[in-house]
Amino acid sequence: MITKRIIPCLDVKDGRVVKGIQFVELRDAGDPVELAKFYDEEGADELVFLDISASHEGRKTMVEVVAQVAAKLAIPFTVGGGINTLEDMKKILRAGADKVSINTSAVQNPGLITEGAQFFGSQCIVVAIDAKYDKMTGKYFVYTHGGRKRTDWEIVDWAKEAVKRGAGEILLTSMDADGGKNGFDVKLTRMVSEAVTVPVIASGGAGEAQHFYEAFQEGLADAALAASIFHYKETSVKEVKRYLRRQGVNIR
Fold first, then answer.
1. What Enzyme Commission number(s) does the record list for this chain (predicted)?
2. Which terminus of the chain faces fewer neighbouring Cβ atoms within 10 Å, N or C?
3. pLDDT the model gives residue 62
4. 34 Cβ partners below 8 Å, 6+ apart?
């Protein structure tokens, strides 16, 4: 049986970990290298590092910081932000990342997914999708540039396209739930989980251990990602795992 994964996320801006609500109102959460080391020791299954302003500002992800973080980790490590070419992927993976996460660049150039998957293998390519519900149409649409630009892609269509092109995993963030701590958008997560054949990581909205259980049971997620509740010690990876085991969830 496949075990469910708990993944802390480091949203990094200007070399510091930050956290906001619905992608805005960012506040400082610490040093990425120190936090990475802490989560490794805490029992996290993986770590995600997102340079959240790289695509919007047209910069490259901070390769030096990635290398420093990778040096502290024994767990798989995914890096995203400003990765636009195969050469960018090579730099990030050489710096010590196990996987690369692409979002804006994947939508703008879907061929990049295939290029990366053919060169490194699908297991290295994570397509991150930022989704927002549109009340007028009753549909979820894909957003790019750190949640700033809406696309014409509906969420399930883009998830299927990304997998068809070689994505080995989908990192699915609900922009509506992000930072609210009221739970993951299980409806959105389930829609995508049922539509694709690769693992789906639920992201956005974690506020307590029960929310992870809901993401796995109702949302059918393979992994669940959280940031602020771990960074600000509102709960811990260990506590979440303890709770999930008590609920009978197969966890590492």
1. 4.3.2.10
2. N
3. 75
4. none
Looking at residue 76, the DSSP 8-state letter turns out to be: -
Q: Is 14 a residue of the active site?
A: no
Q: Rounded to 10 degrees, what is the CA torsion of 88, 93, 98, 102?
A: 0
CB within 8 A of 148, min separation 6: which ones?
56
User: Do 170 and 159 touch, CB atoms closer than 8 A?
Assistant: yes
Tokens representing 88 are 């960018």
- The CA distance from 54 to 135, in Å, is 30
130 annotated active-site: yes
- Whole-number pLDDT of residue 64: 83
Looking at 51, 88, 98, 130, which residue is catalytic?
130
Which residue, chain included where needed, has tokens 């995508």? 192
Write down the pLDDT at residue 32. 84
Residue 135: is it exposed, middle or buried by C-beta count within 10 angstroms (0-12/13-18/19+)?
exposed
Q: How far is CA 31 from its chain centroid? A: 19
For position 50, what pLDDT does the model report?
86
In this predicted model, what pLDDT tens digit does every residue of 105-145 receive, in sequence order? 999 999 999 999 999 999 999 999 999 999 999 999 999 98
What's residue 59's pLDDT?
47
The Cα–Cα gap between 185 and 205 comes to 7
